[in-house]
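Incident log, structure service

09:12 report received: a user says their structure output differs between two submissions of the same chain.
09:20 pulled the input from the user's history:
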Amino acid sequence: MKEKEKLIIETALKLFAQKGYNSTSVQEIAKECKISKGAFYIYFPSKEALLLSMLNYYYDKTFTRILNIKTKGDSPRTAYRKQLTVLYENILEHKDFIGMQMKEGSLPYTEEVEQCAKKIRQSSLQFHIDSLLNIYGKKAEPYTAELCFLIEGISQIYLECMILFGYNVKPDQLADIIINRIDDMVKGMSERNDKPFITLEEASSLFGPLTHGRPDPLTESIVKSLRDKINSLNTNSSLELSESLDILEAEMKKKTPKLAIIKGMIHNLTESEALAKDAEQLKYLLKQQHI
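09:34 re-ran on a clean worker, output below:
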């Protein structure tokens, strides 16, 4: 991302927090950035496009920080605690903007915003699923989707108390509280042998592909490269390419992946000149793994 684009996004975020999205004009954003209104449109064709870039910027920033945390040598529980702490820190860094949305709900509801929100929710749920399995193993496996919903719901209510009502809880303290609550829920569900309220497959139909398990590091590296390149594309096919990669990644994680789906999604990716090289490398790697 160019420095000027980043400046506009961060300035708009500050103004939206102060006045709300609908009450902030492009002229005000440009003035605060010390650029002309015409210069604004060089980087963003509309205020709605700026909002979409802002959401993607927030998503990339949050999950890049989570992935970059040093957890080598840590237990899964300690690693998850560190990651939750960073997640909550990132949310609270933008508490003014988030607080404004909690009070007013002023963001426009467009298909693009909906898709971006779905992508953020899907990544968040998958992050929790991977961590739950690393910590609790098979004990948590039947309940991963339900536990994720409970984690998200509890976190949201606690964060609302902190953002809207001034509850003074530090991010690492909140992480401890959430993990302790998860301990209790996993213990209770497994000991009672509860029937899950919602299965992982059902959750996937609502929020996009969610899976148990992760691919090997080399495969992950290529998938990440593809994801980064798709996010940097500014074409009409970006959404379709992102969906193809989502489906491909989910299928690769299955115990018995369907070859036709994998071949089809890789073919979709190779149709893009910018992605063809990585897609071919991934195809070769999966073939070596007999997938």
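09:41 both user submissions now match this output. Likely a transient worker issue. Closing.
09:42 reviewer note: The chain has two domains: 52-207, 217-288. The chain has a mean pLDDT of 88.
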